[in-house]
Each structure stands twice: as structure tokens, then as C-alpha cells.
Amino acid sequence: MERNWVEVEPEPRQDGNADVNASGSSMHALSHIRQARIPPHLLQRVPGVLTPGAFSFCEVDSGFGPMLNRKMGSQGFGGAVPPMAAFPPQRYHYFLVLDFEATCDKPQIHPQEIIEFPILKLNGRTMEIESTFHTYVQPVVHPQLTPFCTEAPPPDQRSLPRLIRLFSSVKHRFQQNIPCSTLKLTGIIQEMVDGQPTLNQVLERVDEWMGKEGLLDPSVKSIFVTCGDWDLKLMLPGQCEYLGLQVADYFKQWINLKKAYSFAIGTWPKNGLLDMNKGMSLQHIGRPHSGIDDCRNIANIMKTLAHRGFIFKQTSRRI
């Protein structure tokens, strides 16, 4: 039997104070959803309970994907909800965002060696950057960088911004009388690693920086964050093993941002930072394959997720 339907419009939302709790966020999300269609016989059965605006079938904005809508929506957060004035506290006092750049070639050289070593100290309460450790690293096994990264992509629409950055870098090298044959699309050239500290020296400086920042205090909870498991599962331990160096314990557990993003959003970011920025409508910061710029993008993605109520947890470890 065909039923008639009554269109129910949600009541206009009245903004309260800036602090949004879980139930408040849920009601805020309801103000963004479509009108509900409710059968008249249900309205007659529950008079005074089901009033216009009291309920509707929730359909949150699609910007964050269905999994985020289900998982975060169950906690009172939805894709349509703007960043909260006060977001839930994280499990860590500090997040240490790290992204290596390493030597490469085709076929791949062995061993790969770290040539850029950046760390951003991210406050777990404000999700703001408080301190930076950044240095280039002198490779010792293969001290000369290969020309592999100088291969320019074809001039299609997607690579045009990259070619523009490449041209700007070429212009800068020309003005500084640096040979353009050494130019890397990663932005790292031979002159930038020559005379820099070796990995052994860099690890000592990292430990000094960690102590200076109070990160070695047992009462301070901190954890590294990477875009993938490669940096701390393969790259650092692999090079340290080759060189006979010890890996500090604080490098042996970390958060893989890809896994955290996948848990929150429900889709795997196949193209890493590019997919995560796109999935959350964020502008990419700096240039791809720059370690320090990649760290800034990771920090920005983390801040955005945290402002939407996501709690970061350790995802990976190496014994």
C-alpha cells in the first residue's frame, strides 16, 4: 500500500558557546542534514515526542568519506562539523614529525643513505609546532648523489606546477652560479650535503636536541610520526645496521599517519600526503620530496584531524 509522506524541516540552529561537546556536535551536525520524510501515521503515534526538528536521517557532508562519518559521527563529530574551539586531549604530550629523504637511483643503490633529517616537535595540546630539528646529511658509502632525480616529468597538466618550481630553482642556481646539472627535483643537490654531518653525528645531535627539549624526561610522553613505515622500520635501522650504529629506543615506536588517516577516513591514501591533503581539502605546503616540507604537511593533516576529535595512537613498532 502506498503511503503519503510528510516533509519535516529541521529547526534553525541556535549557536551556543564555542566549546562543543559530543552531544552538542551531534546536534550541530543535524543542522546540516537533509530534511527527513516521516510517515504521518508515525507522527500520530508519538505526539509531542517526534516534533519537527527533533529527528532526521543524518547524512553528513561527503568531504571526509563514509567511514569518517560513521566512526567520528559515533563520537559526536561529523564531516560537516567545523573545527572545535577545544578538542579532546591527545595521549601524548608531543608528536615528533619526521620524514627522511635518501639517496636513490634506478635500479636502487645499496645501501640507501639518509640525506635530509627533519623533525618537528608538535604540541599535543595545541597541535602547533614548537621546535624544529633540521639538517642535511653527508652520505659516506655513496658520497656523490646520482642524477636519477633530475629526470623531469612530461609537461602534462599535473606536472606543470612542478615544472614551474623546477624552473624557479634553475633560475636560482643560475643566479648563484651553481651548475644546473646538479639540480634535483627533490631540491637536494650535491652542494647541500657536502661538508654536512654524517649520520652518526646527526644521531648524536638529535639526542642532544631531544634532551634540550625535555623529550627524554620519563614523565613526558612523546612519539614519532611518519608518513608510512619506511622511515623508521626500514630506512634508519637498515642504514644503522650497515654502519654498525645503535638505534635509540625512541625511534622504535611510531604513528604511521597513513594508518591513522585510513582509520579515521575509511580509505587508504595510496598517494600519501597528496591524497590526504586532497581528502581533507588542504593546500599542499611547499614542494614534494622535501623532507622538511613533508613534515609540515604531516603536521597540518594531524592538526586538522585532531580538531575534528581524532585521537592519535601508536600504530607501529620495531623490536
Structure notes:
With 319 residues, the chain is an alpha+beta fold. Helix content is 33%, strand content 13%. It has helices spanning 22-30, 40-45, 65-73, 160-175, 190-193, 199-212, 230-243, 257-265, 273-279, 291-307; strands spanning 6-8, 36-38, 94-98, 101-102, 114-123, 129-136, 222-226, 253-256, 316-317. The strands form 2 sheets. Strands 3, 4, 5, 6, 7, 8 and 9 form a 7-stranded mixed β-sheet that branches. The chain is globular and about 50 Å long. The model is unreliable at 1-82 and 150-184 (pLDDT under 50).
Number of strands: 9
Mean pLDDT: 74
Q: What level of helicity do the residues show?
A: 25-40%
Question: How large is the radius of gyration?
Answer: 25 Å
H and E order:
EHEHHEEEEHHHEHEHHHE
Poorly predicted ranges: 1-82, 150-184
Shape: globular
Number of helices: 10
Category by helix and strand content: alpha+beta
Sheet with the most strands, sense and barrel status: 7 strands, mixed
Strand percentage, roughly? 5-15%
End-to-end separation in angstroms reads 64 Å
Task: Compile the SSE list and pairings.
Blueprint: E1 6-8, H1 22-30, E2 36-38, H2 40-45, H3 65-73, E3 94-98, E4 101-102, E5 114-123, E6 129-136, H4 160-175, H5 190-193, H6 199-212, E7 222-226, H7 230-243, E8 253-256, H8 257-265, H9 273-279, H10 291-307, E9 316-317
Parallel strand pairs: 3-7, 7-8
Antiparallel strand pairs: 1-2, 3-5, 4-5, 5-6, 8-9
